[in-house]
Amino acid sequence: MTSSPLRASIPFPTHRVGLNCGSAPFRDVLEHGGFNLSEDFVFGVGSGLNLAYHHGDDLVPDAHWRAPLTIITGRAIAPYEEAASVLGVQLYSRFPTNNDEAWLDLKDCIDRGLPVVCEVDQEEVLAHYGRENPLTKRFGWRFGGHKTIVIGYDLAANTATVVENMFPQTFEVGLDVLARMRSTADALYPPRNHRFTLVTPKKLQSSVRAVKMGITKNVQRMREPDYRGNGLPAVDWMTEELAAWPELLDKDRLEASILMASLQCEQLSGGGMYRNMYARFLRQADDLVPHQNLVLAAKQYRQLARDWSSLVGMMVEALKNDRYTIFSSVPFKDALSAIHAGEHRAIDLLDEAVCSWD
């Protein structure tokens, strides 16, 4: 690490372009601490698999996740927290109460050589790479909830150095811009200056134990979620409603919800609504804890990834053509039925594996 009264910079050669901010920054910082795991493995042991379906209304238990669109996503909110728990990594999470406190807290961490994973307004990050969220372009909405890593600052230049999981190179951002990114009050899912750091042990928890714990907890989460909008109950709820979206949702909500489903399915998960990521994890898990059901479940999730991409692709095509009759078509309903059956079958397979372990 290099530092002076005006600047500090943490060498960070462990960055790899990632698929999702719920797992990639944790993976990068974990390797910085001496432990090189794949992002798929972090996602899996972090019980990252989910199916969330809800209308962003008052039925969502946490008001932070309410928004004017209907959500379909395939991941848990914070897989990095579960991953830290099962791997034996200490994760310190804070929500500073104001921007001044947030800056002093961030500076202190960097001065101590700790990369800081910060929650930010994603649109500020995309702007540095000349990209734009289609939902922001269409509706003007900004989105918090995105995680990025800060590894340095320069008070003379008034900048901070940011590592972004979506891109290979770092970028410099003004400290005033960083403060705004971390505290955008009018964003959907506002970032609230949230950050976390990791303290890695001399030795991680056994990978075999971590795999068993991660899959066991994920099965529980899918079978018995906190409310109807998560897990297999959400799969059932979505299956009941999705074909009727053109009648259930007003035009703007329908457009926004399709765009969000497309982002979640293809751009934020590496394709296939996070099912490809989980399939790759299960093959790694089978190397550590051999079980035929892990192989079968991996195959099922690869098929589900294809089914999800097909389904969401039909939704996007309907939006482009402004013709929503495809929602009532046989191919659409067949894809939806395949997803419903496949999601239940995959968890049944994993549940059988879990019950066979000592």
Task: Label this structure with key terms.
358 residues; alpha+beta; two-stranded antiparallel sheet
Give the helices and strands, then pairings.
Layout: E1 2-3, E2 7-9, H1 24-32, H2 39-45, E3 49-54, E4 71-75, H3 79-87, E5 90-94, H4 99-111, E6 116-120, H5 122-128, H6 134-139, E7 146-154, E8 159-163, E9 171-174, H7 175-181, E10 195-199, H8 207-223, H9 231-241, H10 245-248, H11 251-267, H12 275-288, H13 292-321, H14 330-356
Antiparallel strand pairs: 1-2, 2-7, 3-4, 5-10, 6-7, 6-10, 7-8, 8-9
Helix pairs in contact: 2-3, 2-12, 3-8, 8-14, 9-14, 11-13, 12-13, 13-14
Tell me what you see in this structure:
This protein is an alpha+beta fold and 358 residues long. It folds into 2 domains: 2-19 and 93-199, no CATH class; 207-356, no CATH class. 50% of the residues lie in helices and 14% in strands. The chain has 14 helices and 10 strands. Strands 1, 2, 5, 6, 7, 8, 9 and 10 form an 8-stranded antiparallel beta sheet that branches. It starts with a strand and ends with a helix. The mean pLDDT is 96.
Largest sheet descriptor: 8 strands, antiparallel
**How many strand segments?**
10
Q: What is the number of helices?
A: 14
Strand content: 5-15%
Overall geometry comes to globular
Helix content: 40-55%
Mean pLDDT figure: 96
Q: What is the succession of H and E elements?
A: EEHHEEHEHEHHEEEHEHHHHHHH
The span between the termini is 45 Å
Uncertain stretches of 5 or more adjacent residues: none
Counting structural domains, the number is 2
* Overall radius of gyration: 21 Å
Class of secondary structure makeup: alpha+beta
